[in-house]
Amino acid sequence: MSHQHTILLFSIDPGGANSIGILAHELSKTANIVCFAKEAACSHLKHNFPQINVTLLSNKHDQYSKTTYLQLLATIKPNVVFTDTTGRDYSNRSLWRACKDFGIPSIAILDQWMNYALRFLKQHETYQGCMAYTTDDFILPTAIVTMDCSAKLQMVKEGLPENIIHPLGSPYYESLKSKPVKNKTQKKKAITILFASEPITAVYGHKLGKKIHGYTEQTIIKTLCQSITKQAKQQHFSVIIRPHPRESQRRYNRLIKSYHFASLCSKRSVQESIQSADIVLGMSSTMLLEASLQNKPILSIQIGNHKESPFYLEQIGLLRSVRYTFQLHNVIKNLEAMRFNRYTVKMTTQNNSVESIHKLMTSLCQLGKSD
Q1: Does the pTM of the predicted model rise above 0.90?
Q2: Which InterPro entries match (predicted)?
Q3: H/E/C letters for each residue in the chain?
């Protein structure tokens, strides 16, 4: 694309912001880049991609109204728009609607192998746990980029239109594969468990969150701490909770008071947090995948989930999540005996994802010109 082209990138979620940040950096070499983000994603981008100029879009704007985004598009006049995807916040969906009014191609970049339909539903009240909706149930961008073919197949099963889904890979996961692995082995008195939380209750609330997943981050971390109390000597463990950027740290105050071996993560970087831990536990956070790519032991705990796993490594048959309390008790005993399972991860995401996404973007822009 020529230097006269303008690309607008918009991010809401810190996880999705990773690929948006990489795309912004790469696309800035050939185009004019304008990047907007909501609070959590904006902070994440500024810390991890300091070379990118990011503008904060206030949470005061009505996420259900496309008026703000029509004004934004009228001012910037982009040739194409990139967004991440998320569940509860409708800002991306309002931006896609505004793009449609202007005839501007919009491309959504997925970052997770879960909750596909929820990212595009017109209203969450229609969620009934069913796996097939109709196109009328969705607000859709021009194109959706998935990490691999398995994500595309599952999206189609849930009712999303196959013709707009492109399994082109993940710029972020591809970047992780190229990073050197640093593992430090130290003798410690306590085993350090990093708990990678997710904003299930912050996004969906406790009732809907539990209906969707069978658990929430609060039920899982409490069960973990209870299991340590019952099955092991508490001084042998240190549980470091890393809240998701969209969570309030105050949410964990009561739990930390109840379990002296639990504390909040003080490290700002995800990579620093992973490197300082002996094992990373969570539900389906991308941090588990990042840790496994760095040869860190990981474990997915999904006690209460009796449906298909939302965790990618379980979906491809590499590991099994803990679904029952007695299984977690056994895990704690093994951890106390310093028995860790490591997994060799071979990503199924495509290579050269940025180049592939660039080609898709070019074709959509050319198609728009011919209409």
Answers
A1: no
A2: TagF_C
A3: CCCCCEEEEEECCHHHHHHHHHHHHHHCCCCEEEEEECHHHHHHHHHHCCCCCEEECCCCCCCCCCHHHHHHHHHHCCCEEEECCCCCCCHHHHHHHHHHHHCCCEEEECCCCCCCHHHCECCHHHCCCCCCCCHHHECCCCEEEECCHHHHHHHHHCCCCHHHEEECCCHHHHHHHCCCCCCCCCCCCCEEEEEECCCHHHHHHHHHHHHHHCCCHHHHHHHHHHHHHHHCCHHHEEEEEECCCCCCHHHHHHHHHHCCCEEECCCCCHHHHHHHCCEEEECCCHHHHHHHHCCCCEEEECCCCCCCCCCHHHHCCCCCCECCHHHHHHHHHHHHCCCCCCCCCCCCCCCCHHHHHHHHHHHHHHHHHHC
